[in-house]
Amino acid sequence: MAFPTETVYGLGALATDPxxxxxxxxxxxxxxxxxxxVHLAAADELDxxxxxxxxxxxxxxxxxxxxxxxxxxxxxxxxxxxxxxxRDTVGLRVPDHAAATRLLELVGGPVAAxxxxxxxxxxxxxxxxxxxxxxSAVDLVVDGGACRVGLESTIVExxxxxxxxxxxxxxxxxxxxxxxxxxxxxGEVGPARASGMLPSHYAPxxxxxxxxxxxxxxxxxxLAAAGVRVAVLATGPTPPLDGAADLVVLPxxxxxxxxxxxxxxxxxxxDEAGAxxxxxxxPPPEGLGLAVADRLRRAAAPRPSS
Length: 306
Ligand code: TXA
Ligand code: MG
What we know:
Elements: E1 2-3, E2 10-11, E3 13-14, H1 18-28, E4 37-39, H2 46-49, H3 55-64, E5 69-74, E6 89-93, H4 98-107, E7 111-112, H5 127-134, E8 154-157, E9 164-167, H6 173-180, E10 207-210, H7 216-225, E11 230-233, E12 248-249, H8 256-272, E13 277-280, H9 289-300
The structure holds threonylcarbamoyladenylate and magnesium ion.
């Protein structure tokens, strides 16, 4: 079943039941070697599902759980490798959402849950998004309203002594570094480590182009003059545009938190408005802005032809 968390809606199955986990991969159309995040009701279950809990991991869990942080650790043999794409590590997270916590308590076990969208597409932030994307592939959707954070958890890997940022997300990297008292390693972790880190991911149907705040009006006019239906996701006030009457100007956000919370909704709105191209102005890549800029870059990345 699909259920709300503070980040995005997840598609959950009991992580200790390989047949249930297989249905997640089928519903999403996700390659079977892509690991799932395993959700726990409370932080004190961490050492049951991780083979070892290094001190920095315990510190992060104590400081930031429940919350939008996933910690990748060595997998306990209690957890079947079906949920972890065959890996010997597991991403664990305690969500900060009353309905998710209640569900996890009722299940009484770890729940594997990727975002409840088809592979490669925009993550759902409402129950209606889940139904629109996955439809009858899902037995049940718990409707908890719109997600508070709006994009996925930050993923930090803590094996072999180093702390590596695998995916920027709802907890700013700066906050994690403050808790660890050390900088996070980033960059070359290999494209298959986190599927959310594939170059093209989180993509709407329309083509996404990244532009700077002072360049989008000229680009919008040029595209409109060429007969292209354009939507704009800008950060500031939008001036009236001559010669681009057909322009879809999506509501701008007034804070980076709002930008994060509404990003996936806006990508969907661009599609609903029939836009062929979405011009998006990324926020500065700091704090939550790092995750917003990351998702926009992936939405704009060249897509494999299909
Ligand atoms: O906020 C979130 O994290 C949401 C909610 C539902 O909790 N979940 C989510 O799951 O975004 P998903 O499957 O869409 O993204 C999980 C990411 C994938 O990129 C996956 O490759 C990575 O986490 N991941 C999971 N386990 C991992 C592991 N053991 N090692 C490396 N990456 C892992
Ligand atoms: Mg996902």
